[in-house]
Amino acid sequence: MLGKILYKTYYQPKGVVEKTIQQGIYNTWQINRGKDEMRKASETLQQVIHEDQPLDNLSEVSFLTGAKFWFMTAFCAYSLSRVSEKNIKFIFYDDGTLNKDIQQKIKSQFPLSEVVDHHQINERLATSLPESKYPFLHYKRRVYPHIKKLTDVHAGTSGFKLLLDSDMIFLKKPVTMMEWLLQPSGPFYIVDRVHSYYYSDQIMERLAGFNIPPKVNVGAIGLKSDLINWDQIEYWAKHMEEQEGSNYLLEQALTAMIVADKHCVVGALKDYIVMPTLEEVNCKQGTLQHYVADSKEWYFRHAWRSLI
After folding, report:
1. How much is the pTM?
2. What is the per-residue pLDDT across 248-270, written as a single tens digit (0 to 9) for each?
3. How many whole angstroms from its chain centre is CA 102?
């Protein structure tokens, strides 16, 4: 509770002020205007259903989303349905903010979808990831929503799942990713522009017992749920924070440790572009663009408009 209060009353406002100073007042206004227009445009999106393709045994693609992020999720899912050539079942995991009205809207926009609401998730976690045994992970769920991409999607379930971040747009058919969906044999991930784990390779490798693959980005990540060792995740996360502090990249670091000893399928950087430049956005380079860090500006001001 204290962590949430500090975030809302100090860190969040401080971050907004610092970001405005960094971007400039005019650019910030342009970004916010683009975000508002994108939010309105998202309400008109409808899943592309390929009539010549079967509607059974669909490949499943998952998102963790909520009321604040749904407009971005809608654009990402719509863009994938448009370029995939095959029908996809989208699984939307509720971050705790999807009320019944939003869930109905999701189903109307994406008929081939399922919403897993937070009540279902909490019931599953109560038995598969009890707080009495995993207190640190439950604490992180309350103060660090990113960890839900691991706990809420995978704990107590089985099989491979492909989880996508919302702040992405598919420009072409993601061949490598779609082939992996049809026959996954190990984890799938895309490559970051920079090495972004925050935590040192030394502590990550000591805990995992393997060399950590560089530049794993979790914007598109495929994992086998029942192979995740939650005792390890609880210990790793707690130990890393005790030794090197808390950071929003914890979930990405943990994922890199999970896949460290696995044979992975990796989306090529030239196709799956993390943090695209303005030129790459304007030229629509790559198969997928993931708008992290400074590329958020190009995302809200320009990138989404190409889909309308």
Report:
1. 0.91
2. 999 999 999 999 999 999 999 99
3. 19
Q: Which of 166, 165, 194, 167 is nearest to 299 (CA)?
A: 167
98 CB neighbour count, 10 Å cutoff: 21
